[in-house]
Sequence to fold (437 residues):
Amino acid sequence: MKAVVLLLFALIPSCCSLDNGLALTPPMGWLTWVRFLCETDCVNHPTTCISENLMKEMADIMASEGYLEAGYQYVNVDDCWLAPTRDSNGRLQPDPQRFPSGIKALADYIHSKGLKFGIYEDYGTKTCAGFPGSLYNMELDAQTFAEWGVDYVKFDGCNSDVLTMYFGYPAMGHYLNATGRPMVYSCEWPMYEVQQRPPNMQKVAETCNLWRLHTDIEDSWESLSDFINWFGDNQDTLIPVAGPGHFNDPDQIVVGNSGLNEAQSRVQVALWAIFAAPMIMSNDLRSLHGWQKRLLLNKNVIAINQDPLGIHGRRTINNGATSVWVKELTGSQFAVAILNQADQPLTFSMTLYDMGIQGNTLFSIVETFEGDALGNFNVNERFICGVEPTGVFLFTAKAVGNKSAIKGDSGKLIQDKNQHSLNVLNRGKGSRRVVNL
Fold:
């Protein structure tokens, strides 16, 4: 099969880059997978099965409750929307019971709300759940998606020869472009290839608007921590290939489900903002707690994520359970996340210079989640902040002028015009770890 597949791809005109003008900032939206998985039993689970009704309900909420206004524009269905077989013309078709109106009608409905519609397919012979895949039918499937009005294609990699992905994923990108319809191209290529050999990340970035690299995220703190650590450990590979039109994808935002508490939920949106990662929620928008909705709609967090430079931030400090992440922003600004992965509160003390913000410049510090202005700091002035257990302190530092560099003091809580206490978000109980770096 490998030889046949490679021969087919050899007939496709090569191109140097995807260059479709899309995803100049990380895509934002909603996806079915983590929350609703592959639930196809609409008789016993009518409100949570993968269906046109579920998609329309999510679209209604996104349009009416501030998500679209905040930047969440894609409503995406993952695996299990398909019928078990293609139609008599070899075209993909949706399950007729769960999508009786058809995919074009669903896309039209979502478009009527001012939103965009995304769909799932697979590079292999079958999807991960066993529905028809796109191998040998990629050109036809791309044309079908365009005719349906699809705006975003997530292309998985189950049931395929991983070693042909180097040619197969660019082929699908070529076919999508050839339709003339703008469609964001989300690839799972490197997530599969890395299991056998290091993927060519430059080639991936030239082919895809975004790409998965690690395993599937789960609704738990353990899974979230694993993703964050993996992205930090592999940042020298990831950072150079990220930018407008092509982003690393650490998978879905799971805030709004039951696996993360409030502090941990802040961690996910903060680090996804630092990573310049797609913010694709997977939750039930009908049943969010107020604090979950407020967090997902936080304009300051979204502004960091959507910064037009599109820079993937760097872990500048890694000290066990304590780490510092810095992302350059437009307008002489930086975003900084101080992450505490331990289960006890943290008192953190460090200068901006040592965090990775350099230069003899005065910076205005603003805490991100509440928007509190915390004063001006020279890069060599030490400040102290409290960070919750399994929590994060997220702030922006904007250059406001030059000032002679001075050495930070011993880190005591001195509150005057030059030294500041940032003891906010300090709600943890019990013993306190002290990190004085």
